[in-house]
Automatic annotation (TrEMBL):
Domain Inositol polyphosphate-related phosphatase: 297-632
GO biological process: phosphatidylinositol dephosphorylation
TM annotation in the entry: none
GO molecular function, one term: phosphatidylinositol-4,5-bisphosphate 5-phosphatase activity
Matching SUPFAM superfamilies: DNase I-like (SSF56219), WD40 repeat-like (SSF50978)
Protein name stated in the entry: DNase I-like protein
Recorded superkingdom: Eukaryota
Length: 693
């Protein structure tokens, strides 16, 4: 966020319903005068330099002024009754509330409006109206050229934005979809479902990026240059208050030295953001050249996950204990072994539930006063330590982190020889069960720095139920959007996407495992037949997680990758057997247990299930090679080069900003280009054009 000083301008008029900056032909006047529309139909003008209301007209409109739009040097005011007034500049090329403006009628109660080249686009509910603006010596008018109703399966219009040239319009909708419109044909050419939440505001930035403000208070930035839009960045901008408007001012580049984007929230909050994503740009450039200032080496990582269905370690038979050792040695001598359990205790226990929700704390530290599930964790910790020691690894391992959340249990082991290279180990947890009150569902995340690379390991248990895909998606989103860790400041090139280590996805090497609970959308008998024929690909086509990753743009786990599944579904078995569920419910077999990864320098070698039968789930494992780095002193030279490249890039943006601002003032683009070639100074160019046109 860009830090700015704020000034409050008071006035004795009514509540403001719309606001817009007055067009200026002189650079020094840019952003000085604003027009505000009020709920009683009054228009006022505010001078930001003197902080005073300089003009007022109460007879302009008889109902709330909902929209004030700019068209070249004009302003169009639109009220709730559908009256439009066009305010044109006087001989001094300035707008004045004292000038007469005839009323033009369009459709009433238009909720959103935008000027697209020489057209006015407005929308209400599911109805879109397009008017052609006609200007001439006999006056100004609007001719309705289109009225379109979108299909009932799409949500109501909530906002409109356009690209710079006005060839494309993007509309946001109540149901989280974005519709893309061709302005030449006035037709919708594509629908992109980006979220399950209401879109409140949209802004197209530099033709490629779509800033999207949601009812949740979050802002997402999508890169539209990909066939499947890529989520570039997301953050909690306004703490759950809907982001009602996103505004870009083309003059900010030459007035403030950067592209600034303002977000407005329903609670009255206003924030200014770096529209260039400067830190992200520089980080990307540095990462592309990291071979010039880093030393790399490969390490092996073993991820093991198992929903143990409240099994006790002492109940493992000799054969099961041997199978566990095999599970924990899917590869010999990895640098890191991460083990995650789900349902380590009985989640149906009312006592466990009450303790979790009410957060009762026992002040006594003695083992005699420990709760049974606390003792259970200790027993499993000891069992895992013993099993890894007996698993045939040549190296010795040390437990560096152990963490639990009712039902979830994570242990991280590293080679003793590698432990000195690990720093800043920490753990965090996110509860999603019962609205975040109960730990029966959620995640444990463990992170650390390994030399100059950042790792994060997530052990999660998402919402159960064949039809609860949306709840699982929401659980994953909650986990990924929660600030799990304390920030680590000052460690450059350790984290990614401009992060500071508070979020899971700030880390360069992420592993996401656990009982994700995604099911297979086929009848039980069909699934059993395909399992019998080992037709894993046909099963995978109907896997819910695969479909969400490939088809749902809003799915927060889309940035994670999963290796090919070439084993039978791991759920649900009759305990102590190899038979799928024969209970009254006869659940459909599914790959509930999964391991995903995220990071450019991760290679997966294996993905397997293991035959421990104590639980109704089978354990799984995955082996990876992760490339870690050590930053060298040469980094300083590369930083200097990147800063120089950034300066050159911003010079081009600065030029485009000047050109676009002058075009917005109504001057032809070709003439503007010629003037700027002769005189690169924006003030001189504006004054020259003002004197000639």
């Amino acid at each position: 966020m860009v830090k700015q000083e704020a000034t409050t301008i008071g006035h004795e008029d009514g509540r403001v319903s719309s606001i817009a900056a007055c067009p200026a032909v002189r650079v020094e006047d840019e952003g000085r005068r604003f027009w505000c529309g009020l709920f009683d139909g009054t228009l006022i003008e505010i001078d930001t330099e003197t902080c005073k209301v300089t003009s007022r007209i109460s007879s302009a409109h008889s109902s709330p002024v909902n929209h004030i739009l700019r068209y070249k040097l004009q302003l169009w005011t639109i009220d709730d009754s559908g009256v439009v007034k066009i305010w044109t500049p006087n001989v001094n090329k300035q707008l004045s509330l004292l000038e007469k403006s005839p009323a033009i009628q369009i459709a009433k109660k238009q909720q959103v409006a935008i000027v697209v080249r020489n057209e006015l686009w407005t929308a209400k509910d599911r109805n879109l109206n397009i008017y052609a603006y006609k200007s001439g010596h006999i006056g100004n008018s609007f001719e309705q050229v289109e009225t379109l109703d979108i299909f009932p399966e799409f949500g109501n219009f909530t906002c409109l934005t356009k690209n710079r040239e006005g060839t494309i319009v993007y509309s946001g909708h109540m149901d989280g979809k974005v519709m893309i419109w061709d302005t030449m044909t006035h037709s919708c050419v594509r629908v992109v479902p980006v979220s399950n939440y209401r879109i409140c505001s949209l802004l197209c930035v530099r033709e490629r990026y779509l800033w999207t403000g949601f009812a949740t208070g979050r802002i997402y930035i999508y890169d539209m240059s990909f066939a499947h839009w890529n989520l570039v960045k997301s953050w909690d901008a306004h703490r759950s208050s809907p982001v009602t408007q996103l505004i870009f001012n083309s003059s900010s580049i030459f007035l403030c030295g950067n592209v600034q984007i303002a977000s407005f929230a329903e609670d009255g909050g206003v924030k200014i953001w770096d529209g260039m994503l400067t830190r992200d740009w520089k980080e990307k450039e540095m990462l592309q050249r990291d071979a010039e200032f880093c030393e790399f080496r490969d390490i092996k990582v073993l991820i093991c996950s198992w929903n143990i269905d409240a099994s006790k370690p002492q109940n493992l038979e000799e054969e099961e204990a041997a199978a566990m050792e095999s599970w924990l040695s899917a590869i010999k001598d990895p640098e890191i072994i991460v083990v995650g359990f789900q349902e380590a205790v009985n989640l149906e226990s009312k006592k466990v539930t009450a303790k979790s929700i009410l957060k009762f704390k026992n002040k006594s530290k003695s083992k005699t006063n420990e709760e049974p599930w606390t003792q259970r964790y200790k027993l499993w910790q000891d069992k895992l330590t013993e099993a890894i020691g007996r698993a045939g690894h040549q190296s010795k391992y040390e437990l560096i982190h152990c963490h639990n959340l009712i039902g979830l249990f994570t242990c991280v082991f590293v080679k003793v020889s590698e432990k000195p290279k690990i720093q800043c180990a920490a753990a965090g947890k996110v509860k999603t069960g019962f609205g975040g009150l109960h730990g029966n569902k959620g995640a444990i995340a463990v992170r650390f720095l390994y030399e100059d690379s950042s790792f994060c390991f997530v052990n999660c248990h998402l919402a159960a139920g064949q039809g609860h895909v949306l709840q699982r998606n929401n659980d994953a989103a909650t986990i990924l959007q929660t600030s799990v860790f304390e920030p680590i400041n000052g460690d450059k090139f350790v984290f990614v996407k401009g992060g500071n280590g508070t979020l899971i996805t700030d880390h360069g090497l992420c592993f996401w495992s656990g009982d994700l609970n995604y099911r297979i959308d086929l009848p039980r008998q069909k699934v059993l037949e395909l399992i019998g024929r080992q037709e894993w690909d046909k099963l995978y086509e109907n896997d819910q997680l695969q479909r969400e990753q490939s088809q749902n743009l809003a799915f927060m786990l889309r940035s994670f990758t999963e290796g090919p599944i070439q084993f039978a579904p791991t759920y649900k078995y009759n305990p102590l057997s190899n038979t799928y569920d024969t209970s009254e419910k006869q659940r459909i077999p599914a790959w509930c247990d999964r391991i995903l990864y995220r990071g450019e320098r991760i290679q997966q070698h294996s993905y397997d299930r293991h035959e421990l039968t104590n639980s109704d789930h089978r354990p799984i494992s995955a082996v990876f090679t992760a490339t870690i780095k050590r930053v060298l002193p040469q980094v300083e030279k590369v930083q200097v080069d990147v800063e120089a490249a950034w300066a050159n890039y911003m010079e081009k943006i600065y030029h485009h900003g000047m050109e676009n601002w002058l075009v917005e003032c109504g001057y032809p683009r070709e003439i503007v280009k010629q003037v700027l070639e002769r005189d690169y100074n924006i003030t001189n160019a504006a004054n020259f054009l003002n004197s000639q046109y």
